[in-house]
Specification:
The complex is a heterodimer of chains A (about 300) and B (about 240).
Chain A lengths: L1 H29 L6 H19 L7 H24 L5 H30 L14 E2 L2 E2 H23 L1 H11 L1 H6 L4 H22 L10 H16 L6 H24 L9 H13 L3 H10 L1
Antiparallel strand pairs in A: 1-2
Helix pairs in contact in A: 1-5, 1-6, 1-8, 1-9, 1-10, 2-3, 2-4, 2-8, 2-9, 3-4, 3-8, 5-6, 5-8, 6-8, 9-10, 9-11, 9-12, 10-11
Chain B lengths: L2 E12 L2 E12 L3 E5 L6 H8 L4 E9 L2 E2 L5 H6 L2 E4 L11 H8 L8 H11 L16 H13 L5 E5 L7 H17 L3 E5 L3 H7 L2 E6 L2 E6 L1 H6 L1 H8 L3
Parallel strand pairs in B: 3-8, 3-9, 6-7, 7-8
Antiparallel strand pairs in B: 1-2, 1-4, 4-5, 9-10
The chains are: A mainly alpha (about 300), B alpha/beta (about 240).
Chain lengths: ~300, ~240
């Protein structure tokens, strides 16, 4: 039981980190709070469901497909929904509202698709879990290793890209002074598009891996968006490892916190487990507004 | 001298706000041109128009014979135009070296190192703080970095928006000296907005007086200086 909780917490932390990672990348480079990011995660889960059902491989084989599909969806959200309004000088609040509208549209589309899979192909598309398809390695389910490997590879490769390539330099410059980046010849629209695609890809990986350990349904991303925001804010935007740290802390806080509370107060508190990241979010905004990575950077600086 | 930049009947502004009215201006190869005028007369909007950071309603901006007023902002740099903006002219979270590299975004990758060395030989004071984060520099140091960054793209035309604004007299004199050296050592054309007219008149070949979005004087700096009425009314100098 203790070990199962620990594994759950570790896996959940890595998946939260992957989800928060994309949100942070978008926020860091284009300053937009993308509420529709939750639905991009859900689309990743549905890519896993569709590919696994029709091609009969383990969902792990479909990670690249989920990355590509979700990159494309996120890129389209940016090009069609966000950029035209941003180009007219919309404030970040207005852009947040735009992403809420896109989120609602995507929720409808995902539900229609889930209905379609259920009605036409008789798939269990409203509730699915692929734990039975997982492999074991060193006595643990493969999802634990896969989730952490995906998060580590993504964090390291994005870090290397941001710190050591011209493109990465331009993305960092864009995050600081967009107009100056333009004056220096950076194509802000293309760079922002790229950031959204990369963020969508990370969300797709998280979504594809999620059903290997946790129950999935059409509203899974929507129900987790507040937690993703908490990861992004708590992690801070200073460094790309922020979401990794925040995912770890929040994942453990959520799983162990609710275990502790239910043993103290009773199982009635379990449905309120999502309140733990919200409390951390409020405390972060009050006492650590620059987030974990900003705090670490300040201490080093 | 052949004209590098020619602006004809330019009407520009921001959205519904019309700031510039039928502005004509010419800057020849190797020439330094000043745009002077009271606050709010549209000087910065004029420079922004060249980069399409302001909305152009009508008129033309012609660089080396081709119209650029419909060019996307980020492409203007690759046409050989550098821009030192008055505010937000460095990336504060990046190191000075990264700022310089960003300034060379449009140059081929293998030329960047060589260009940094060239620029550092022109703007010598920047050399010692290459590794420092730009946000930690003083106002004068930051302005020098900004000037170096604007030079990184190998510009033929450099737009300078109040490069000595907000600086101490010593720092302002250093910047003015750098601009003067640039003019003497390179064939760089410059379009300068500057409140500190005493510094400017030594450097520039031609002056435009912009008032309420309209050019009301163009000529040599000594001609402007000799017009006591204009100097007093619009520039506050007797």
């Amino acid at each position: 039981m203790i070990m199962a909780s620990f594994i759950d917490a570790l896996t959940y932390s890595a998946l939260l980190g992957l989800m928060g990672f994309g949100l942070t990348l978008i926020r860091r480079t284009t300053g937009v709070w993308n509420v529709a990011h939750g639905e991009v995660v859900t689309i990743g889960s549905y890519v896993a469901l569709t590919a696994t059902s029709f091609l009969a491989h383990s969902p792990y084989f479909h990670l690249p497909v989920a990355f590509i599909v979700c990159s494309a969806v996120s890129g389209i959200i940016f090009l069609v929904g966000v950029e035209p309004i941003r180009a007219k000088g919309a404030s970040s609040i207005l852009l947040l509202v735009v992403t809420i509208a896109i989120s609602l549209i995507l929720i409808a589309v995902i539900n229609i698709y889930a209905d379609y899979l259920q009605n036409v192909f008789h798939l269990s598309s409203k509730n699915f879990l692929y734990a039975r398809l997982d492999f074991t390695l060193w006595g643990q389910m493969g999802i634990l290793w896969a989730a952490w490997a995906a998060l580590a590879v993504l964090t390291v490769s994005y870090y290397l890209m941001l710190q050591h390539t011209r493109l990465g330099l331009a993305l960092r410059a864009l995050a600081e002074q967009p107009t100056l980046a333009v004056v220096m010849g950076a194509d802000v629209k293309s760079l922002s598009f790229l950031a959204w695609c990369l963020a969508g890809g990370a969300a797709g990986l998280a979504g594809c891996l999620f059903p290997m350990r946790f129950q999935c349904h059409p509203g899974i991303g929507t129900s987790m968006i507040a937690t993703m925001f908490a990861v992004s804010i708590f992690g801070g935007i200073e460094k790309m490892y922020g979401p990794l740290l925040a995912g770890l802390v929040l994942g453990f806080a959520q799983i162990y916190g609710i275990d502790l509370l239910s043993s103290l107060v009773g199982p009635g508190v379990i449905p309120f487990k999502d309140l733990i990241p919200m409390i951390v979010l409020l405390l972060t905004l009050q006492f650590l507004p620059e987030g974990l990575s900003g705090f670490v950077g300040r201490r080093r600086g | 001298m052949s004209d590098l930049l020619r602006v004809e009947n330019l009407n520009a502004g921001y959205g519904a706000i019309h700031v510039l009215f039928d502005v004509d201006l010419q800057c020849d190869q190797g020439e330094a041109v000043a745009i002077v005028g009271p606050n709010g007369s549209g000087k910065t909007t004029f420079l922004n128009s060249i980069f399409r950071l302001a909305d152009i309603f009508s008129g033309s901006v012609i660089l080396e014979g081709s119209e650029i007023q419909r060019e996307r902002s980020h492409k203007v740099t690759s046409r050989g135009v550098g821009y030192l903006r008055q505010e937000g002219n460095v990336f504060p979270g990046l190191s000075v070296e990264e700022n310089l590299r960003m300034g060379a975004f449009n140059l081929p990758k293998d030329e960047v190192k060589e260009r940094i060395e060239e620029v550092l030989s022109l703007v010598k004071p920047v050399g010692p703080f290459l590794r420092r984060t730009a946000g930690t520099l003083s106002g004068g140091e930051r302005e020098m970095v900004a000037l170096a960054v604007a030079l990184m793209c190998r510009p033929k035309l450099l737009l300078l928006d109040e490069p000595t604004s907000g600086l101490s007299p010593i720092a302002a004199a250093q910047i003015a000296e750098l601009i003067k050296n640039l003019k003497d050592k390179t064939r760089l054309s410059m379009l300068i907005i500057e409140q500190n007219l005493k510094i400017l008149f030594d450097v520039v070949d031609k002056c435009y007086l912009l008032v309420s979005g309209r050019i009301i004087f163009s000529g040599k700096p000594e001609e402007l200086q000799s017009d006591k009425e204009l100097m007093k009314t619009y520039l506050g100098l007797a």
